[in-house]
Write a structure and sequence with these properties.
The chain is α+β, with helices and mostly antiparallel strands. It has helices spanning 57-65, 82-92, 94-109, 140-150, 161-168, 192-197, 204-207, 222-228, 273-284, 319-344, 363-367, 371-374, 404-408, 474-480, and strands at 10-15, 20-26, 37-42, 45-53, 75-79, 114-120, 126-132, 153-158, 238-241, 244-252, 257-262, 268-272. The strands form three sheets. It has a five-stranded mixed barrel with strand order 1-2-5-3-4. Strands 9-10-11-12 form a four-stranded antiparallel beta sheet, with helices on one face.
């Protein structure tokens, strides 16, 4: 490759996360890309940095920083090896401890200086101390103490408050990272004149940055304001009218207006640039106009009838409306439960006669029946059955006995209400009491006397008394006898 086509042989390398940058000549003729770690020539040793710029862009950067391409430019040695990176990381760990000790030593001597950062070279042979001070500091004795304490070659470098803020870093009032710690390298002086040109209030707290100086961003738009102010006349700070002298208060470069007010009034009158020039020309001729002809400034408000293409629903949905809807829903649910509960209850009330049971049935026997039999079939979930009282057994434990409604032959329909207790007929003595267990029919027992009897009809009141007459002999006598008890039952030897 010829010399005319060869790339520019100087590379910009950054150190310590970009806080310091320098130029080095690539004598190895290797191609390096941005972000690669390289070993460069240092003070009596080597240093390790990251490639920041290559090619023709380096020429522009050198021109901006006013650095000339001379043989004295330091050389780039090689790509950084693993050993170089490990040695650099070990020395970087010493920087925090060295900064604390250096501050304590400077305070013990009584020097009016502030140490901002300590940077140790990758090979550990040199240390650079960055400090800020308002006045000149005699640190000849301090250098001797630092050299004996840290056993390195010491370099003291003074920086300004803006460079210190760039090394420390932080977040500005705009919400972004500080310009001085990211991309800004050339720090220009900023004064309050820049704020006056931009019609900003001279408030030191709002105009100052984290470094304590005026913000660098005040210079960013200053050129635009200066270009806009060229159209405004310079010799119109005071104009004469018939009502008195009017003094210039401010310039509105966005609307091209100049605001004037009289000496004895606080009211301000906006005038166009053309009108101000006319009044100034009349004043030079010795003429004072009758009025200023102020411009009416109308603040345009957005029309509410204009369809913006979207609907603003903020605040239209409130929690109170949601609470009312939930309350109505709960109320409807309660009403439905009440209606189902009323439908499930019998029409005649709680004291009703159960189907298939006579009016004189004992009350204990009614309570022994399960709750499931008393409720008509419906959609409600089944309830737990009531426990029987005393020695009574539930209906399911009575063997294969049929329900009372089927035994009596009565259809299971609507239940009839009971009669009041005063109108009930007297209870038969032969009927069992509430605490007695009703007698169950047996299959092999003696048949009662009489004609044909429905076997499904229950026998209420116990066995019938024997009837007189009709047939004699041993067969008739046995038939007229009362049945024996179950525990004394013996095999019947009939003839």
């Amino acid at each position: 490759m010829t010399d005319s086509l060869a790339p520019f042989d100087i590379i910009e390398v950054s150190f310590n996360n970009g806080s310091r940058k320098d130029f080095f000549r690539n004598s190895t003729k290797q191609l390096f890309e941005k972000g690669e770690m390289v070993a460069v020539e240092g003070v009596s040793g080597f240093d390790v940095g990251m490639v920041n710029l290559t090619g023709e862009l380096v020429k522009l950067q050198m021109k901006k920083r006013r650095v000339e391409d001379t043989p004295e430019v330091k050389k780039l040695l090689r790509r950084a090896s693993t050993e170089d990176m490990n040695r650099m990381s070990d020395n970087k760990k010493r920087e925090t401890e060295a900064l604390i000790k250096a501050r304590a030593i400077a305070r013990s001597i009584g020097l009016e200086m502030k140490l901002a950062e300590v940077e140790i070279q990758a090979d550990g042979r040199k240390a650079t101390f960055f400090y800020t001070a308002d006045d000149r500091v005699d640190f000849r004795e301090l250098i001797k103490i630092y050299a004996s304490e840290f056993r390195v070659k010491v370099e003291m470098r003074q920086i300004g408050a803006r460079q210190e803020a760039g090394k420390v870093g932080g977040i500005g009032s705009c919400g972004r990272e500080l310009c001085c710690s990211t991309w800004l390298t050339d720090f220009k002086s900023v004064n309050t004149t820049a704020a006056r040109y931009q019609n900003l209030s001279i408030n030191q707290a709002k105009l100052s940055g984290q470094c304590g100086r005026l913000k660098c961003c005040l210079n960013y738009e200053l050129d635009t304001y200066l270009d806009a102010l060229k159209d405004f006349p310079d010799d119109c700070d005071m104009i004469e009218t018939a009502g008195g002298n009017a003094t210039l208060q401010k310039r509105d470069i966005f609307k091209n207006l100049m605001w004037y007010s009289y000496d004895n009034s606080n009211k301000q009158y906006p005038l166009t640039i053309t009108r101000v020039k006319e009044i100034r020309q009349l004043n030079r001729q010795g003429v004072k106009p009758e009025e200023l002809k102020a411009v009416e400034v109308v603040t345009s408000k957005p029309n509410k009838d204009v369809d913006l293409g979207f609907a603003d629903v903020v605040g239209q949905i409130s929690l109170r409306s949601l609470e009312k809807a939930s309350q109505k829903r709960k109320q409807k649910t309660k009403e439905k439960h009440k209606e189902h509960h009323q439908k499930d209850k019998p029409k005649g009330g709680g004291n009703q006669q159960q189907p298939g049971q006579s009016g004189g049935a004992p009350q204990g026997q009614q309570q022994a029946r399960p709750q499931k039999e008393q409720r008509p079939q419906g959609d409600r979930p089944p309830r737990q059955e009531q426990k029987p009282r005393g020695d009574q057994k539930p209906r399911e434990q009575r063997g294969d006995q049929k329900p009372r409604g089927e035994r009596s032959g009565e259809p299971r329909g609507e239940q009839k209400p009971r009669e009041p207790r005063e109108q009930r007929p007297p209870r038969n003595e032969n009927q069992p009491r509430g605490d007695q267990k009703p007698r169950e029919p047996r299959e092999g027992g003696p048949r009662p006397q009489g004609g044909e009897q429905n076997p499904r009809e229950p026998r209420e009141g116990g066995p019938k008394p024997p009837q007189q007459g009709g047939g004699g002999g041993q067969r008739n006598q046995n038939r007229n006898r009362p049945p024996r008890k179950p525990d004394n039952k013996q095999p019947d030897n009939k003839q």
